[in-house]
Amino acid sequence: MSKQIIVPFGPQHPVLPEPIHLDLVLEDERVVEAIPSIGYVHRGLEKLVEKRDYKDYVFISERICGICSFIHGATYCQGVEQIMGIEIPRRAEFLRAIWSEYSRMHSHLLWLGCFADGMGYENLFMNCWKVREKILDVLERTTGGRVIQGVNRVGGVSRDMDAAELKRILSEIPSLRDDFTELTRIFDEDLTVQTRTKGIGILPKDKAWDLGAVGPVIRGSGHAVDVRSTGYGAYDELDFKPVVRDEADCYARCMVRAEELFTSLDLIENAIDRIPAGDIMVPVKGNPSGEYYARAEQPRGEVIHYVKANGKKNLARHRVRTPTLANVPALVQMLAGCELADVPVIVLTIDPCIGCMER
Amino acid sequence: MKQPQQTIETIAVEDLINRVHSFHDDGYRLVQISCAAEGEAFEVTYSFDKDLTLTHLRIPASPDKPIPSISRIYLASFVYENEIADLFGIPFTGIAIDYKGTFIRTSIPHPFGSSQISVVKKKPEGQHE
């Protein structure tokens, strides 16, 4: 048996925009074990809920993450609305679904670009981000914010889209679909991508379930786990079918995200087709009392916002279980047995968002 | 559309391992473990999912009484148990990967566990009455 050595990976590493540390136990170039360490960017945001009015806290919950911010805000609102017994206008639910899907496309395109960059494929990275700009333009045009939208409110949303805007969005979708087709073709067929991803970072189907993986990680291992299937918000009226792959490797996780871009476009078309007229917000009076585990599907997977209130204007507890935290045990499993050179690519395939994970 | 109602079953700490075993045998996925203050004490809640339905188990907790880790049944629980131990100071016994207080790096120990944090409102310098 070769001598074992430990190679530190992170917290600063070219493929990691945020800090996470892995102790990689190696035998020659093969990883025997990976031990993760986190906690470099813990901000204590959950504690802040005790000091802020529950309505103002929506803006803090959106700042848990700089990529999937919209869905954090929407899920927090869902939880508070549930314990207060508020039924928000149906139009607001449709608008939340449309913005959620734009948020998902922007996150997936960002990830596909970072993934290409991690493989040393810089022009593909730039192409992904060029298309992402078109998504950010729509978010900015319709909400006023490119990354932090700030339109979620307890009781609905603060901005509407008029008929002209909805028509304009529909008219832009064919061009986006063409862009996605071209990008997906490259990820699907390019030899460089295939060599770096196929058969690498295997997460067997039973392990993915046992380790509590979520999002594209578990769907890339053959499980149709997607919270949108529960029909929360407007999703009960949209024709949604989760994207599932069976290869269980880095390629599968990459292709789940690429194919989900098309699902998001379909859902947006669906939502615009079926969005009802009406109000976008209901007045909210009083303070919440009770508790609820609200969940939603973020780009990285299932997110849980636990809210607990005792009738005061400040919540007693807000707890967020982000998808990256749920995917850390699966990452440890994927890394065991891989080559050292494949570690960056495997780490990227869980789409780690550390700021989000540590809150 | 309103969300589905959720029920949380409170059980004794002694029953935890048996109950979690039965969830595992029935094919449930561990979704999360969370902790919250309840009066002077705490409560730890375990959430499981099967067929997209959430089920919750809750146990009472305190910093003086260790909780048996479920990481021998669900390995993934080690992240949640280490997090609760670091933030709330609630000890777990037998965690498969025990970081012994170094999982979440905080400037003060167990910041969510007791009232060690006080917020002091100060006027910006140079501002007068």
Summarize the structure.
The complex is a heterodimer of chains A (359) and B (129). Chain A is α+β, with helices and mostly antiparallel strands.
Protein described:
The complex is a heterodimer of chains A (359) and B (129). Chain A is an alpha+beta fold and 359 residues long. Chain A has a single domain (42-321), classed as Cytochrome-c3 Hydrogenase, chain B (Orthogonal Bundle), CATH 1.10.645.10. Chain A has helices at residues 57-62, 69-84, 90-118, 122-143, 163-189, 191-197, 205-210, 215-219, 250-274, 323-335, 343-348, 354-358; strands spanning 4-9, 21-27, 30-37, 152-153, 156-157, 289-298, 301-310, 317-321. Chain A is globular and about 70 Å long. Chain A starts with a strand and ends with a helix. Chain B is an alpha/beta fold. Chain B has a single domain (1-124), classed as NADH:ubiquinone oxidoreductase Nqo5 subunit (Beta Polymerase, domain 2). The mean pLDDT of chain B is 83. Chain A binds chain B through residues 35, 37-40, 42, 44, 46-47, 51, 78, 82, 87, 93, 209-212, 225, 227, 229-234, 236, 291-295, 302, 304, 306, 308, 316-317, 319, 321, 325-326, 328-330, 358, and chain B through 1-4, 6, 8, 27, 29-32, 34-37, 45, 47, 49, 52, 54, 56, 74-76, 78-80, 83, 86, 97, 99, 102-106, 111-112, 117, 119.
Shape of chain A: globular
Distance between the termini of chain B: 51 Å
% residues in beta strands of chain B: 25-35%
Q: Classify the fold: give the CATH topology of chain B.
A: Beta Polymerase, domain 2
CATH class of chain A: Mainly Alpha
Which oligomerization state do the chains in this entry correspond to?
Answer: heterodimer
Report how far apart the termini of chain A are: 42 Å
Task: Give the CATH H-level superfamily of chain A.
Answer: Cytochrome-c3 Hydrogenase, chain B
- Mean pLDDT metric of chain B: 83
What is the overall pLDDT average of chain A? Answer: 88
The count of domains of chain B is: 1
Low-confidence stretches of chain A: none
